[in-house]
Specification:
The chain has 440 residues and is of the alpha/beta class. The chain folds into three domains: 169 residues, NAD(P)-binding Rossmann-like Domain (Rossmann fold); 164 residues, Dihydrodipicolinate Reductase, domain 2 (2-Layer Sandwich), CATH 3.30.360.10; 87 residues, Domain 3, Saccharopine reductase (Orthogonal Bundle). 35% of the residues lie in helices and 24% in strands. The strands form three sheets. A seven-stranded parallel beta sheet has the order 3-2-1-4-5-6-15, with helices on both faces. α1 packs parallel to α15 and α15 packs across α16. The radius of gyration is 23 Å and the shape is globular.
Amino acid sequence: MKKILILGAGLVAGALVRYLLAQEGFEVKVASRTLGKAQALVGDAKNGSAEQINVDNRVELERLISKADLSISLLPYVYHPLVAKLCIKHKKAMVGASYVKEEMKALDAAAKEAGIILLNEIGVDPGIDHMSAMQVIDRIRKSDGKLVSFSSYCGGLPAPDANNNPFGYKFSWSPRGVILAGKNPAQYLKDGKVIDISGEDLFSYHWPVNIEGFGTLEGYPNRDSLPYIETYGIHGVKSMFRGTLRYPGWCETMKKIGELGLLNEEERSDLPGFTFREFTGKLIDSARDDLKGDLAAFLDVSLDSHVLSDLEWLGLLGDEPLPEAVHSPLDVLAARMLEKMQYVPGERDLLVMQHEFIADYKNHREIVTSTLIDYGVPGGDSSMCRLVGLPAAVAAKMILQGKIRLVGVQVPVVSEIYEPVLAELKQMGISFNEKKRALD
C-alpha cells in the first residue's frame, strides 16, 4: 500500500481526500491543527486516518512526512518550503497547489539529487490554467504555427442563481486575501508594448469580456503576466495577458473603496466605540448630517450611483457598532464583507476560465477560444473545492503509480503531466469547450 499524507483540512481538501480514499492501493492520512476537521474528511473509510498536528512542531511534521510515500501540502504557502525540504531529506514526493516562490525554486537541484518530484501549481489557477493553455500551445507548435497573442481570464463567482447581492461576489473563506489582491500592481504585454499598472490604479483598467456559452463578465489584470512568456516558452509573442473575472460593476466599486481608504492596513487606535456611520464620516472628514451627500462628493459619484448604493447596502452608512476585533480600515471592510457576502446552504458557486490564442500559420491566421464553465454542487462540493483539489489528487496518484516520472521542482506545463491529468479531469466532467475561426 502506498501511503499519502495530506497536510491541511481546509475548504479545498474535501474532493481531494475523497478521490484518493476511493483509489485502490492507497492509505490516506489527513493531518490538521483541528482534529475534528480531519476526522470529518476521512469519515469511516478503512484506508483513511486522521491526526492532529501543529505544523510548527518540526519533529512531528518530519515524523509524518518520513512515514509517507507522498505528501500533499494544503497548508499556507509559507510552509511549503519547509515541507519540501523534509520531503527531500527523506526522499519523498510532494504535491502542492500554490505558486512557486524563489525559496521553492532554489530546491530544484536538491530534489533532483534526491530523485523526487516537488510538483507545485497543480490546482486551478495556478494549475488547470497552465495545463489547458500548454495543451493548445503545444498543438499549435506541432502544426507549424506561431503563437502571436495569448490571453487568459479566470474567476470564482457565485452562480447566477446565487448572485443576489449588489457586489456580485461571495466569500467561502476570509475575504482578506481577495481584498488585498486589489492592491497588487499589474503588468502585461499588448501589441509588443509593456503596460505597467500601479496597485492604486488597478481597478481603473477593466473591460467587458464575453464568455462563450455564458455571457458578459468584467475582466481586469491579474498581477504580472510577463513571467508566463518564459513559463510557457512563447518567446516572440506580441501580447500576453492574464486577468481576473468578476460580474460587471465590481471594479468601479472596488476602485472607490480604495479611494475611500478602506484598503488601508495601518492600525488605528480610534476605532473602538465607532458606529459604521461615524467610521465612514471620519474617513472623509464629514461631521454633517448629510453623510451620503458628503460621501458622493468625496468619491465624485452621483447620489444615485450603484457605487453609493453598494456601500450603503454593505452598511457603511448605518448606525451599527463596528465589530470589536478590528484594528484598521481593511479589517472593517473584511469583517463587513464576510458578514454580508457569504454563501448560504444550498447555494452553488461558479468557476469560469477562458483562454484566447491567436496563431499565424503559413497560409492563414487563426483564433482559438477555450472555455471552462464549472458549477458547484448544491449541498456538496463547491466548484473551487473540486477544481483546486482534484488536479492535485490525480497528479499524486499518477506519481505514485509511476505514470509521472519527472524529478525536481516542477509545474504542470509539460505533456507528461498535463495530458494524463486533463484526460482524467475530463472523465469527471471538467473540460474545456473549444472554438476556432480564421482571421483575415
